[in-house]
Amino acid sequence: MTWEQRWHPLREEWIMVAAHRNDRPWSGRAVQRRGAIAMPYDKRCPLCPGNRRTSGIVNDQYTGIFVFDNDMPCVGQNAPTDIERPPSVYRNRPATGESRVVCYSPRHNVTLAELTPTRIISLFAAWRAEYRQLGARADIAHVLVFENKGRVVGVSNPHPHCQIYATNFVFKTIETEVSACGRYWQDHRRVLMEDIVAAERADGRRVVCEQGSAIAFVPYFARYAYETFVVPKQRHASLADLSRSELRDLARVLHEVLVRFDNLWRSSFPYVMALHQAPTDGNSHDGFHFHIELHPPLRKPNLMKYLAGPEIGGGNFLSDTSPEEKAAELRVQKPTHYKHARGSV
After folding, report:
1. Residue 314 above 70 pLDDT?
2. N or C: which end of the chain has fewer CB within 10 A?
């Protein structure tokens, strides 16, 4: 049995590891996997080419990547600024910005894992353009790019897409990470993520794959069973700063990780993916190192990692699995998608 605490240097919190708990008896709700095969085009889908969205706007007949303003944004330029001041110790402020959707492909029935690394590089170009254009605005402090994939994380539309929230504030996780990286730089004159990468490479047990200037690993302090970081080895503040060769290597590594996810249980693997990029608030953010984080919610083929007493009540994350064992499971998977015979796009 394993009872251990591991320090998460980016979130500045302790993670409890009790890997033997993954095999405990379970009689709760199981995740049901649907067997229906989606078609390349769905006339009911608001993201498919030529279809009408909830706003009444008709999509372009796009053939590649398609970016548009979110019809149901969580932030916007029209947010009221004259909001009522709350009483006593409470505080509030306007939440302004832009919310966009990025469709990866016109095909309704593919995922990011089923696209080629070349197509992922094209997606990187779209993300870079949005980060630069939105981040250059004086009213935007942060640009968050993220994908929610799978019904178990609340996604109702399987069409391959992600979202971009460009906000007048910095999201809490990034704010904490910026602070931790900045202090580490001031104290050691080294980049925290570069030292994390060096530690993972030296240990080797948690490395999933590596291609030239990019690496993927299940971090020592992983909170979720198959949590994976995809990282350029050289420090950059954002995706927009990578060279052409670094983008190529990063695309290959991200693609390989997603393929290994799908191959693990021969199914479309759910996750939350977030690009951790430096805020665009005009500050220096010394020591911050861009990377991509993938947080899959399943710890077994049909079992979710539920947040309960330790996480919600106590405030410390409890990992039911060993990062070393989960990385090994991913590492033995083939880097070619199990649907390869049906082709990639």
Report:
1. yes
2. N
